[in-house]
Amino acid sequence: GEGSFGKIYKALDTENGETVALKVSRRSPGSENEVHILQKFMSSRHCPKLFYSSKDDMYVYISMEILGVPLKTYRYKSKGGKLSMICVSLIAIQCIEALRDLHEAGYLHLDLS
Length: 113
Known about the structure:
CATH superfamily of the largest domain: Phosphorylase Kinase, domain 1
CATH class of the largest domain: Alpha Beta
Number of domains: 2
Order of helices and strands: EEEHEEHH
Shape: globular
Strand content: 25-35%
Number of helices: 3
Radius of gyration: 15 Å
Strand order of the largest sheet: 1-2-3-5-4
Distance between the termini: 13 Å
CATH topology of the largest domain: Phosphorylase Kinase, domain 1
């Protein structure tokens, strides 16, 4: 996947054979701060576990847990390619809970889409 702050790849951890999400972002204060936020929140059910992070002169690399099935998979399997109102409601509740947890810790999420 690709967002405004980086690309996420499905990758293989060669040390343990597990499939992970590998986020690659241009190095910036925001991308480096993301590692600290993930470390702080990875015990939350709304946050993936951080396995490893690294950086070079241009990029920050974050290896983390893959969280479930992508939403587009649900869309493809659903009737007419649309999610049910119940499914959308459950997803919205989880997003709101995650944002609440971030806000309670003093953080704001700036890339909601």
